[in-house]
């Protein structure tokens, strides 16, 4: 046990080391009783939030989970945390399941023991909100402006949500029969349970004044010029609905399809038919989804009249009918250019795929689709390769074939900008935007999500949130020309004080000297959240002992049991586990009320704010008449909230 603690607990200095250079130790001691520096309370963005594409105030809702930021009376902490979450992301239950959590990679707790289980807490709170029928904030009255949102996926739904909260009427167009975009049609239901997705979508629509027009394709069913006439602004969130085919000869064979087509067919209810051997080319999460779904679907020995078989090997059979047929497993090989350990897919997904019987070949590249006399793919010719940056380099003499009945290309996606939408195409089957999400060369048109840059669902949600802000400013006559360097949903101390009825007094703008006793100012506080992310070496990490992470359990599916298993794999946290993860958060860049500065100040210059005047970020203050600028409060601050600034 001692060895484990020694291994996992941070130490600023090892035995025999010192922060003092012997040559100037004496001088430092003699200067320790005076300084022109004094402590300033500096808010900076936590790296978890800076790493989150949606801009979640992660530190904020973890502070609620730990009990530091207490909810108003009669409100459960889960509801309070949910309210904080949806200020940046209206899909906590879905994102808590499928987001690969770059926030956890950025977590400063990695420098102590292990990251905080951010994703797991998000899922717990999101599920609790659904179970307890928690609603979104009440929107304001309509202001007379109408905005068209094209696409009902994560970017479009997020934009509609945030725009409605700003008082705009929304008309949401989608070419599908249901909303959800890639959350519904690009990810299997055992990863994004449809009842959870439906609940989070319905919660947005329940705000009112969001008109939904399904089965409507803009460009054909409604022309682009009609949008310009009818709406004050347009947000394009079409997504990337077309997969990229393999860049090799014969990739247009009838039984060569893309990962997007495969998952879309499955999620619409088409079931796999007669292919027994499948090769999936990719390496990202989409390729894992394709391979995993294929293993679960299996194959049937013969097509039937009611199957309406397609050339690709899919038949339109209801799941209950398909379940009555005799199905057998399929052999699935997933290939990737990179070595297996360097695949872009999440490690957890990769290991699950192996456990479920999927063979993964790393460091190989496709050369040619080999076809039979009927023009159907019978094998994929490949070779080993090395990577020079993002470009594969074939290794001569290593060619081999993988026999198959179907090839699925999951190597990337692009938007469908044909049939009336050609004006939007940047030339790369995507929409080009400027720094404020405005479509280049088109007034009052904005865009976000995969149609701009195929990436994570969370990224698309972040685009929707940011674009809603820029559209709001555009409609208000003060369009943005740039966005903040750290473009996340920022903690705002004035809003925090206002929520607790602690607003500063009005300021008459009379120039005065010495404002430390005035009530119109927020003293010794600086907000650098929009420009700085706090690094781990600004924290006193010795405050944090080794505490193991509360990990979500998973229901592992073995290869011989995967056929027909579409149950959810993740087991959510309990309330106790969620609160424990909140306790593990180091609150980087924000005071978490540990009292170190009060205890260790040798001059008793650091004092607690009177209890009735406290708020998040306003727990202590400094009496500058006592402060000698010794830096001790900064040195022992676990969160890096205290920085030394120039005083008088």
Net shape: globular
Structural class: alpha/beta
Largest sheet: 5 strands, parallel
Arithmetic mean of pLDDT: 89
State the share of residues found in helices, binned by percent.
25-40%
Description:
- By secondary structure, the chain is of the alpha/beta class.
- Among the domains are: 158 residues, FAD/NAD(P)-binding domain (3-Layer(bba) Sandwich); 166 residues, 3-Layer(bba) Sandwich (FAD/NAD(P)-binding domain), CATH 3.50.50.
- It is built from 21 helices and 27 strands.
- The strands form nine sheets. Strands 4-3-2-5-21 form a five-stranded parallel sheet, sandwiched between helices.
- Helix 4 crosses helix 19.
- The radius of gyration is 28 Å and the shape is globular.
- The two termini are 50 Å apart.
- The N terminus is likely disordered.
